[in-house]
């Protein structure tokens, strides 16, 4: 169990460091990417392209492995349907991202650097998570 926690901590630190190094914890950078009619900043497109490339390599490696290093099986999504909950959640995510310039990972990484804005976003995110848990799930 300690190895799994250490690996998770290391992965989180690496992810946070990547977000900080790429400038993605700065909401102005994200909002600049979304401002296609103004002074557009393509940095996020390059970060996303790099992330897709790394993810593709990870999925390719996972297909060759019998199981992950710290678990008995891979826990990959199996649902392929698009329902109202998915669409509403995606819309809320997009609106929140567009208004604030934050999404969950960068907001957590930015907490020590941008306390008022980052803390407000994280509080709203936690409230949304609590609301999601309170709503009945439809399968």
Please work out how many helical segments DSSP would assign. 6
- What is the H/E order? HHHHHH
Radius of gyration: 17 Å
Q: Hey, roughly how much beta strand do the residues contain?
A: under 5%
Helix proportion of residues, in percent? 55-70%
- Determine the structural class based on helices, strands and strand pairing: mainly alpha
Quickly count the domains.
1
Provide mean pLDDT, rounded. 88
Shape label: globular
Largest sheet: none
Q: Unreliable runs, pLDDT <50, ≥5 residues?
A: none
Distance between the termini: 31 Å
Number of beta-strand segments: 0
Pfam family, one: DUF6691
Organism: Lichenibacterium minor
Transmembrane segments: 44-62, 82-99, 119-135
Keywords: Membrane, Transmembrane, Transmembrane helix
Q: How would you describe the overall organization of this protein?
A:
The protein is an all-alpha fold and 139 residues long. The chain is built from six helices and no strands. The longest helix is centred in the middle third of the chain and has 22 residues, at 43-64. It is globular and about 50 Å long.
